[in-house]
Amino acid sequence: KHCGCRSCNSPFLSPFQLAALERQVFDFLGYQWAPILANFLHIIIVILGLFGTIQYRPRYIVVYAIWTAVWVTWNIFIICFYLEVGGLSKDSELLTFNISRHQSWWSENGPGCVRKEASMSGIKGLDNHSYISVIGCALEYRYIEVMHSSFQILIALVGFVYACYVVSVFTEEEDSFDFIGGFDPFPLYHVNEKPTNLLFKQTYL
């Protein structure tokens, strides 16, 4: 009874999956462990929402709608982190759980960036190290990360609105089905049965 609604809803969630996977790839390249974990949870919830849409499970879609609020909050934090709002520093190791000094992959591979390595053999104790400098970047990496997070927020808001729409459609269809008689306590096929006493009289005659 819901085939028409399923067929038009299921393809819509694919852009959410693609956006989440794209974000995950670049965070993996930059060894950003906190975003990697958040992206992984986001991908799982998006798949859950897709499953709920295809299999007519409104509760799963509600879970996705609730998660979008968490996802928006997380991306607002990422924006504040790279813009260094409220005492946050983009050079801190917060996103790597303080286990590495890696930064965003875009810090060395942004548009127009040229990566140069200078040997530090002249400095005592650093003979095997090199200094890496990045020049010529057309756009600073923190603004690229901010645009990424802003796009994720936009996608999440669209997903929230669409999830509410799908749940409302499913609810209306279920209510209309109940009204038509989907849960009618009377049997579909009514058989005229004669009273027991009348049958007894006919047998006696």
Q: Can you walk me through this structure?
A:
It holds the Pfam family NKAIN. It is a single chain. The protein has 205 residues and is mainly alpha-helical. 60% of the residues lie in helices and 6% in strands. A two-stranded antiparallel ribbon has the order 1-2. The longest helix has 40 residues, at 141-180. The protein is elongated, with a radius of gyration of 30 Å. The protein starts with a helix and ends with a helix.
What's this, in brief?
By secondary structure, the chain is mainly alpha-helical. 60% of the residues lie in helices and 6% in strands.
Please give the structural blueprint.
Blueprint: H1 3-9, H2 14-29, H3 33-54, H4 58-82, H5 106-109, E1 114-119, E2 130-135, H6 141-180, H7 196-204
Antiparallel strand pairs: 1-2
Keywords:
transmembrane, disordered N terminus, 7 helices, two-stranded antiparallel ribbon, about 200 residues, mainly alpha, about 60% helix
Low-confidence stretches: 1-12, 179-196, 198-205
Task: For the largest sheet, list the strands in their spatial order.
Answer: 1-2
Structural class: mainly alpha
| Total number of helices | 7
Distance between the termini: 52 Å
The 3D shape can be described as: elongated
For the residues shown, what is the average pLDDT?
79
**Helix amount, in percent?**
55-70%
Number of DSSP strands?
2
